[in-house]
Amino acid sequence: MDCRFVGFFILLSYTKFVFCQQQYFQERPQNTSVKEGERAVLRCKIANQQGRVQWVKNGFALGHDRTIPGHGNRYSMIGEVSAGEHHLQIENATSSDDGEYQCQVGPKGPSKPIRSDATLSVLIPPTSVDLLDVPRNGKVDIKENEELVITCVIRGAKPAAEVVWYKRNKKIEIGVREDETTPADQTNRFDTRSKLTIRPQADDNGAEYTCEAKHPAITLVTSKKASVQLSVLYPPGPPEIIGYTEGETIRTGQEIHLICVARGGNPLAQVIWYQNNIRVDTSYRTSGRESRNEYTFVANSTDNGAKFRCEAGNLMTPTPMKTEVAMTVFFAPDFVKITGPTEAKIGDTLALECSTGNSNPEARISWVVDGRPVKDATSRVIQSAHGGTVSRSNITALVKSNERNLTIACYAVIHELGFSQTIVDTKIVSVIHPPQKPVIYGISDSNTGIREGNLIRLSCMAVGGNPLAQIKWFQGKKEIKGEYAISGNVASSRLDLMAKREDNEKQIRCEAHHPADDGLLSESVKLKIDFPPTRVSAKVRPEKLRPGVTAILSCETGSASPAASVSWWRDGLVLPLKSNSTIPGQHAGLISKAIYEVEVTPDLDGSVFMCQAASVVMTQNIHDAVNLEVLYKPTYYPSTGIVIDVVEGGNASKKIECKANPSKVTYSWSRDGISLRTLENKKEKDTVVFRENELFIFDATRDDDGVYKLEGTNAEGTHSVDVRVNVQYAPFISSIQPVVTVGEGRDAFLECQATGNPLSSSTVAWRREGFDMTRVDIAADAGRAYMTIKNAKREDIGAFECVANNGIGGEVVALSNLVVKYRPVMSDDPQHQKAAANEGETATLTCRAYGAPNVTFTWTRDGATITSNDRISIDDTQVDLITWETTLQISGIRSRDHGSYDCIARNELGFNRTVLVLSGTSRPDPPVSLVVLNTTHESVVLTWKPGFDGGLQQSYRIRYRQVASEAMKYADVYPSNATDYALSGLKLGTEYLFSIMSWNELGESNYTTDIVRARTSNLFDENMTERERMMAEILKDRADVSKIVIVGVSIAVSLLLILNLVIAFVCCFRRKKKLLEEAASSDGCSSSKSGTIEMYAPSSYNGTVTGETLSSISEKSETYSHNGSHEDYQNDVHHGKPALSTYLVDPIEPPKEYNHRNLNLGTGGTLPRINKLSNYIDQENEDNYIDTMRRNAYNQSIGDNVNYTTSTGRPPSRNQIMPSSDAYFNIAMGDRYPPYPTPSPSISGVPPPMPNISTGSLRFNSLDSDRNVYTPMGSLNIPSKNGWIPPITVPSNGLYDHERSPTMLEPPITVQYPATATVRNIETEGHLV
């Protein structure tokens, strides 16, 4: 019974132990959505983790590596490994990241595997938002109240986008809409189509309807929308007339402005004016929402009673809308006329009547005869059909014997218009008697010709008579009307005739008629008219022309006076005539005729021969032409020298110009008697084919080069021509000397030859960048170039480029290296002056020399030549044309191998030597030749040459500060072996000081003593890029802050700084006083704890104390500050977080996979003894907490400005602000880092091979790399001679009591590596105790 109870208890205990050890999800992955291009994090946190963790995507395992290779380096696991955080982070999410993800934890020991799923959805915004069937201008015409369907398509969204409609930027809540979602062309994307149906009204005109995509991946900045503007068509309002009111009276001559206005409508109304139903003005204009037509005119009598109508309408009005007014106009009569006899005899009584034209109102008539008013006139008024009245009046008058002429006047007056509107007519009644014989004037010489078309002005005068004589003109029996005039007692008639060829040699007669003389008085003159021919006619005989016959060309003109001059022309040149003659023609003129004969050739086919008739009376010559048609066999142009240029591998075609009559020609092509195929019958192997008279070359080869024959045949015969195909190809450098060696001071001759087509003297050329080409003589001919370098110097050594370029393809380049002989010169590079290796290692000494010709090496030591053996190997190599290198490799270094070695370099011109020093590994030498390569407004590019690396890999650190500032800043160079670095984040237009140092795992070099200065550029530098200018503008704008604000903030900050300094000084003084008191009271005391080291980790750089921390404790008390990252100082792939507790680790026997060694701490191998240990522990606890808080704050403040990449750097300290004087750059290493003597290392036991793991625990830098120890979190068992040693606290700030003698050393420390550890967290008020 007792045994069963004991077994049950054991089983229960084991079950409880297993259950407690079971791993489980403390935080499971959750379904997550992320916008495309953003970062996605799937969280996974495991409590009591035992097994390995990996993520699975859609069933595919991503692996246990937290960097998760592949996927464009976008996948990684993040979080604190020690806390069980294995969150999957995906950068720049794409649609390919969609899917189901699973966080898996493998089994281990009693823990079973566990897994948890989550889905990642990548939100993809739509690619476009489009309105279908919308014109390019974004405007749609629609009639009022007519149904309109607007269709919006949103494409390529995931998930499908929602459509939101807006009208005038307000969301539409009404209207009929249909939405549909369909799969898009892209996988897992969707298109959304929405149809909005509306019936626009007039007030919707100009309204903008907008379709906007609503999607979780769209922000206000990236919103996508499309808009359309409605143009609603609706009728305008009725028109309105402005400018005249019906019934208003106006006068003739008054300017009237009638305005017709039509408001509204889309499109705006067309406004038209009508007067008495006749359209008078259509020139309307629009402004805003109205149309208006302004009709301006001067009122006249025809406007009286006229109706002016305005019509307005657009395409929405079937019939235009109208409005009209009738106008009343006052006007005077436009004439007054007296009717009655114009001549009389003495004693006759004359009956006279005076009548007016239409007027409004009526006109009043009065008479005056020979200056005396007549009172007994009879008057009457008649209504006019045009709306006014006509006035008439009658009188009688007696002709007396003493009167020669009787003057009668009639006056018409409208009093309403004033006397300014009085109109008068006067009539003269003559008393008759006969004139003298007429005389003709105008033609002085009847033999002088008058040009046809000119004006002939004849005057005929008759003196005396009463009334004066009536003069008439006659041509034969035909009367010609002249212009009759009277001047005093002279009657005349002017006859204007246009000279016509029909009037040539015709008679013109003037007759004077008078009522008092029954006889005929007359005079006549003969006309002579000069006129040109009206036509010219060209003819050719025979009708069919062939080469070899004579063509007769005849030209005949129409009748002309004088005779026309006839000539034949071709291509602007006058041709010699065979004959020229004249014959009589019409209208007493002459006909001219000219003959030209020409020998017929094929070139005359289609030639134009022009016949020209010229006359002195013509302003322009007249022409006729004949087009010769010559029948001939095919003829080619040009007849020789036809070449087709084509690039090798290219295509070309050329159509050979061929003329023939008849034009129907049959063509054939051949080469060397072999016919070519036509383009239509081309076979795959054919590269040259033809189509009629056009030759085609495809994928031209050099075999296609040659002469081809084109043969053409028509009804007149057969003819052929040769065509040369010239295949051009890129040049190829066929001959060049790879190396030309000459003695110094002699001339070097370089030759280069190339083949190709075409080739010219400019095809081949020599060049070399940065070389003074004025020192060389260059000669060239087709495809060949020669260059002579005069007085060759050592600086001329190098490659010259032979460049061939004939325009086909790119340029072809070949190198010819010039080597100038000189005796060896040894390299003074630090790596070629020193070497380092520790005992037992292999040392490599590298010696380099420059010279020509071939250089050989000899190694000696203490005068004895070194040769290869089992331990020594010598390898000579040629680095380049003039650089030679030899390496001396010594394996199994012994102490006696250290020392000086001579390297001797020889060639035919002499020898040289250098001494190389082999020593043990050491800290590196400072870099040399630090210079500034370039500066911008915010960065400086530095470069340097490495110093001796001490036999180990070295890294570099740059120290810099502003000239006007005391604060030092540091930047570690990445990659660590780089020799140039771009330092960014600098201030604009500021001068900086720079120095550089190097370090390896054994220590640091001094900073360079030559301080380099550089100033960043100002806002606008002529070499700045466009982006730099833009950033400078932003910086400039930010600098324009109010001076008052800047001064105020500066004063406030200064006051706070002073207050902090006072408080800090008081606290430091009190602490120092307290420490002194405690040190005095506890001197010689020791702790009674067991041999377990309490390891503290208040550093922000890793979770536990590292060996590097311990190393830094013994090496120095001053360090520099990192930039928020300790990646440079440990190889752990996990970035540790600040430790929040102290771990007291009990010793546990380590498993076999961990190393077990004796550890020698400090520079020599053991930790220095620490006095006043108990007091020091209390002080350091508080200092550690303060130091940790200060470091964390500083790291957060400076961000990622400095990139630390080395694995051998030093952790930062609180001394972040260092002295800035130039002297600081030159402090000797010993002044800042007091060294410790290096004792002989003590090793207990032979350790097994150490696995290359790095989990964030102890790591040490030792002079002997073989004794570097890696310590996982565990216990340090420190034995002593007497069996007991007090616990040692290892602070993280690297401070030790260096006042005691450095010769007192502790025994070796034994370090154990447990697989697991029992951890007790002791945490009080957030800091370590």
UniProtKB/TrEMBL annotation:
Secretion signal span: 1-20
> GO CC terms on record?
cell-cell junction; plasma membrane
Keyword list (alphabetical) reads: Disulfide bond, Glycoprotein, Immunoglobulin domain, Membrane, Repeat, Signal, Transmembrane, Transmembrane helix
Against PROSITE patterns, the record matches this protein to: FN3, IG_LIKE, IG_MHC
Which GO molecular function, any one, fits this protein according to its record?
cell adhesion molecule binding
Pfam assignment, any one: fn3
Q: Which InterPro entries match?
A: CD80_C2-set, Cell_adhesion_signaling, FN3_dom, FN3_sf, Ig-like_dom, Ig-like_dom_sf, Ig-like_fold, Ig/MHC_CS
Q: Does the keyword Repeat apply?
A: yes
Q: Which CDD domains match?
A: FN3 (cd00063)
Domain Fibronectin type-III spans what residues? 926-1019
Q: How does it sit in the membrane?
A: Single-pass type I membrane protein
Q: Where is the Ig-like domain?
A: 23-121, 126-227, 239-328, 333-430, 438-528, 532-629, 634-726, 731-820, 824-919
Q: Does the keyword Ion transport apply?
A: no
Entry protein name = Nephrin
Species of provenance: Artemia franciscana
